Structure prediction request, 347 residues.
Amino acid sequence: METAEKTLDEILALAAAHFKVPREKLSPDGDFFKTLGIDSLQALDLLTKLENHFHIELPDYELQGVTDFRTLAGKIQARL
Amino acid sequence: MESFSGQALSWKVTGGVVELALHREPCNEIGSLSLAELEKFAAALDGLEKHAHALIVHSEMKPGFCAGADLRELYRRSQDMEKSLARAGVRDFLERIHRVLNRIDAARLTTIAAVHGVTFGGGFELALVCDLIVADKLARFCFPELRLGLVPGFGGIPRLKRDLGNAIVRDLLLTGRSFNATKAQQAGLVSQVVAEGEGLRAARATAAQLGKFDRSTAIAAKKFIKPIPYEELQREIDLFCELFSRPAVEAGLKKFVESTDPQPYLP
Prediction:
């Protein structure tokens, strides 16, 4: 079982690599739409990456209103 | 017409394989322009079938295969005309796209959709007319229509029912949620999942393999395996038009089109 902090760390690393943003620019509580400069379609790419990485299924409606990595990590943690 | 280069799509024949490439910004939304060019393609199929054995449909746009119907155009046009005319326009559009998709569905070619990224609504329906779907790892499938107060209108429901069990059809349609390629493969929708950016290569390899088989046998097998549910397709058009005339749909479309929310697909 992964810890919440480890899950968060993996999400940040994955988002940084996928969107080619320096890892240190990503804050756990920052708005990832703004920080990554992405739209909803790119967010779906990230969701797919995360589902593949963690081997989970995360319905997109659970992410409605989620804009920060920490909350996202919580949603993923609940599916591990 | 062996090759064509339009504003929304192009096609060419290479080694017995027709490659239909979608390339309309931003993600191949199907509006009047795409429909007119798809009709050209459907009309050209009679000729293409004489010297090809396979068809690959793919997208050259980075966000994905196809984001579905051009809802902005649909909304704008419905605002510009009287309600009964708008409804008649929608029915005409649906009848035309169904004719195109039914023609591709019935093609005497083995057809492959090579999909990546967004494969939503009408884009998903275009993939569903193909015999095989090859998806890259980042492909995502969704029927978001219920979120707008509608049902899929390009033949999605009958073709999903043709291919999948009813429980998964209900999940896709009634929740409006999106599936990734792995889930779509588990459900039986996708025949191959490949690495990012490898969909077209894998589709070409599959098409090359198909060229080794006797065509008349392949055509007979396809006709036997993949019947076209014409009656249900017509009923879907009627249901869509009935729902489209409700004020809630106009309000949903307005909200979608005018939204500046970064998550417009997630009401």
In short: The mean pLDDT of chain A is 91. The interface with chain B takes residues 33, 38-45, 47-49, 51-52, 57, 59-61, 63-65, 67 of chain A (CB under 8 Å). The two ends of chain A are 7 Å apart (CA to CA). The CA atoms of residues 16 and 23 of chain A lie 5 Å apart.
